[in-house]
């Protein structure tokens, strides 16, 4: 059978199965359903990714409808939005809340509640069930479904009904699990962590059956393939971007002497806050003016909380949350340097946001960070992950050397604008959509 006759047969099969004839995916305006099981615009990268990608896809002339769970994302004009409400069990200021009996209206609600009560994390699975209920029967309204790292079994059900599906995996969640387990010696805590990350096994099973996957770096591509047992040929690399209309140098705002800035979307081992705090304590023996502003929330009774008390840093470390991107960019303008101390990153939005603001950066070599920030001493200073002494030395170099700060700040901004914009991300993502619809495997 020739390639053309095989394609014709596949087209007829699709028409019989779905009632929808194949369309010319190379030129058409695409209708995209973009799914994200949570869309918090202030914590983590999921809400940032959904907001900016959807806006730029619409800017390219496509129709995008976002389906997201709580906390809901910020959505720009022109982007459709369908909320997918849940019990919202982890909402602030009352995470792990007890819902009232009248809130339990379905088997999915009950599953969500009992999974939380037994220490698991149900959101990816329960969001998928609810989204499937909304999408069933609406195949004619969309050309494809783009899942943002939910990887629920319901995706496979939708695929069986003719939905073309692509998924984004920013980095394998198994890395978070391994680092969290490594960071604790408490046997009960280890049992709790294994239960919490139980959803990662479900995601791995689903990912192996999704025909097309996109990720944000070559490092993540390698790690996803190895940890989830997926061929690298199925994974396309599309870096995410920075909003250059917000994150840019602001010379009218004075730098604060000794101010170091970091962003930690979660107070977990992966983000390297404890090594950073230990580095700050070392640095202050030579630079008493050194102090740290962290964009993020400090967890009660966390290793970071303990480290702040143990090292006597209560007056020189502050955490801020809930700020708009504009406020964060203004904080960058006040910083003498920025630090990404993570033990591992699949990409790092905070790194490119700081660089776009021309703030000199110290980053570790964890995961994709060297790939993102560039070579040591050229556009950033690089140190080994988990090394407080190396972090302290690098931060001290920047605080003491104004010409080096200016050199790295300028080079970092040029690198980001040349490589990491949301427009570039959207165009490359559309290329993957078209390949999916044409039935072509990524190369």
Name of the level-1 CATH class of the largest domain: Alpha Beta
Cα-atom Rg, whole angstroms?
Answer: 23 Å
Helix/sheet category: alpha/beta
Average pLDDT for all residues: 91
CATH superfamily of the largest domain: Glycogen Phosphorylase B
Major sheet: 7 strands, parallel
Reported CATH architecture of the largest domain:
3-Layer(aba) Sandwich
Helix proportion: 40-55%
What can you see in these coordinates?
It is a single chain. By secondary structure, the chain is α/β, with parallel strands linked by helices. It has 17 helices and 13 strands. The strands form two sheets. It has a seven-stranded parallel β-sheet, with helices on both faces. The protein has a six-stranded parallel β-sheet with strand order 10-9-8-11-12-13, sandwiched between helices. α3 runs antiparallel to α4, α4 (123-135) packs parallel to α5 and α10 crosses α15. The two termini are 23 Å apart.
